[in-house]
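Session log. Operator J.P. requested a structure for one protein chain; no other inputs attached. Running the standard single-chain path with C-alpha cell output.
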Amino acid sequence: MGFRKKNKSPPVLSHEFVIQNHADMVSCLAMIVLLGLMFEVTAKFAIMFITVQYNVTQVLDEKSEPVNHYQYGPKDVATVFFYLLIAVILHALIQEYILDKMNRRLHLSKTKHSKFNESGQLAAFYLFSFIWGCSILTAEDFATNPTFLWEGYPHTLMVFQVKFFYICQIAYWLHALPELYFQKVRKEDIPRQLYYICLYVVHITGAYVLNLHRLGLVLLVPHYLVELLFHASRLFYFSDENKQKGFTLWALLFVIARLLTLTLSVLTFGFGLPRTDNQGFSLAEGNFNVLTVRMTCLAAICLTQAWMMWKFINFQLKKWREHSQNQASKKTKAVSPKSKPHKREPAKGGAANGVVKSEDKTSPRARKAKAS
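Structure written below.
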C-alpha cells in the first residue's frame, strides 16, 4: 500500500514493491502532468488532461450573458486517465489513514478484513456521488418536470457539473480494475467485483456516449443511495454483529430502487423517445433515437435489474437459512437437560472403597475350631 513505511524493502520493480509503492508512483505521474502547465510547449497537452474539453459558448440574446456548455469527444479519454490517477491516490489515502487504523482496532479475520476495506472505499464514494448527484438534479428541477428525460433529445450539450460528474464516474470505476491487483484481492472475490465494475463502466459510459446523461444521472442517484446504505450497514455489522437493522431498511429500498429504475427506463425508451420529433440515427448530430438502440438499451437495463434481483433473492435466502439454523440450535440447547453425575455402585462381592469384606461374620477362633 502506498504511503506506508516498511522496515524491509522488497526488490525494486518486483510485485510487492509495486503494490507497496503504487500510490507514490501514480503521484509522481500526476505531478509530471501538472508540471506540464508551467511550460508553454507542453501546456496545451497538459490542459487536455486536467480540464474538461469541448467547450461550447451560447448567446441566447444580446442582453443575456453567454452560457457555457460542453460536449463529449475523443480528448475526454485523456481527462478520464488523469482523474483515474487521482482516484488511485485518494483510494490509497482512505485506505492508509482511515480503514487500516480501524482494522487494527477491530482485529478482523482475513475474509472480513477484505470485505471491510471494500465497503469502506465504496461507502465513501457512494456518499460523495450521491450528494453531488442530488445537487445537480436539484438545479435541473427534475421532480417538477420528469419529461426533461426525453424532451429535446439528443441532449448533446451538458453543463460543466454534469460532464465533470460523468468524467469522474468513469475514471473511478476504471481505477477499480487495477486496484484489484494493488489491494491483493482474494481470487474468490475477483469475479464478483469484476462483474459490478464492468456493469458500472458499460452503463455509465453508454449513457454518456448516447447522450442519455439525464436518464443516467436520475437512475444513478437512488441506486447510489441504496448501495451506500448497504455498505454502511456492513461496516456497522463488522464492528458489532448485533447491529443488523440497517440491512432491513436496505432490503426495502433495494426493491423500490429496482422498480423505479424499470419504470423510468420503460417510460423513457418505450413512450418518451418514440414520440419526440427528432427521430433517426446520426453520429455527427449525436442522435441515436432509433428502435434498435432504444430496445438494446432497455434490454440491457432490464437484464441488469433482473440479475441484481436474482442476487438479492439468493442473498436473502442465505441469510434466512442461517437465521433458521441459529434459532434451531438455540432451541435444542435450551430443551436438552443438564447431565448429572451418576453415583458409583459398590463392586460385587462386598467390595467398597477397595476393601473386600467377608460375608462370614464368625470370629477367627470359631472358624479354626470348626475347621479342625
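Operator note: Residues 61 and 238 are 59 Å apart (CA to CA).
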